[in-house]
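Can't paste images in this forum, so I'm doing it all in text. The chain is below; anyone willing to post the predicted C-alpha cells underneath?
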Amino acid sequence: MKRRVRQIAVATVLASACMFISASVTTAAFERPYTYFSVHHPDAIATTLSGINARRDIVGNYVDKDRKSHGFVLRAGVFTTIDVPGAQGTDARGISPEGDIVGGYRLPGEPPGNIHGYLLRRNGVLEYIDYPGQTNTIPQRLLPDGTILGCYHGSDT
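Text version of the structure:
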C-alpha cells in the first residue's frame, strides 16, 4: 500500500474554554464508578466526539452557525480547531497516545461523497493521505506504532 504525502505547517488554531457537566454513576453489576460529562464546543450548533487517548485528549468535529464542519482536539479543557487549509470541511476521527491526529476533509467543488485523509502530527506538521486510484480515503484510528486504520473506496462507497 503506497500513499502520497505532502507536508505543510498548519496555521489555523482556535483556543477557548470548555463546558463540562460531570456526574458520577456506579453500575451495580460491576461496582465500578464512571464519570460522564457533556462536551460542547462554544462556537458550535452541533458537536461530535470521535476519539480519545489515554491522556484524555479528545478529538471530533463541530458544525458552526454557518454550517461549516471543523475538526478539533480538546486538551486539558482547551479546544483547538483543526481546519485543513483550502478545505470545505474537516473532521478529526482518531488520536494516538502521543497526540497525533487522523481525520478527513472535503475540497470545494468536489462531489459531496469525496473525502481525503490527513495525519496531523503533534508538532503541527500536516500530511495529506490519498490512496492511489480511489475517490475516498478515510483514516479512522491511529495505533501507537503509527499504523493508520481506516478505509478507502471509489464513488460506489
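The two ends are 19 Å apart (CA to CA). Residues 137 and 152 are 4 Å apart (CA to CA).
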